[in-house]
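Sample entry (148 residues):
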Amino acid sequence: MKTMIKVATILGLGAALAISASAEEVTPMVKEAAKLDVKKVCDVKANGLKKVLAVAEKYNPEAVKLGVEFKRLGITNSVYIKGLKKAIAKKEKKVTLHYKAKGKKKQKTFPTDYATWRACTFAVRSLQQVDEAQKTWRLAVPGDGYKF
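Predicted structure, serialized as tokens:
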């Protein structure tokens, strides 16, 4: 009986260590996004629509993979990017985004510049927040320097 308890304890500790080690992994894309200045990279006037959209397309799949994709007003960042691709190809000044909310089909219209800025900012900031969380999570743990 004692050996079974020892084996179970060792396996439990091993599993806990494996989980904590994998949780601390930060992908190279996250490290790369953490170094970016969002205001400069996502400036539509300075960089143009296509370059800013390319930045959003580069970083958003990683955010989706990590499960941290931004969603605002019921619209995920992937929907912004899809709608922007169509609008930029047609050279439209406004983007109409089609999405589902509470089982109903809905649509919203945004200026193309604003939607492009938003898609880029959402993609980059989601990965930057992952990096920040890896570095600062301990500050939120009660008993680690904060008095309540």
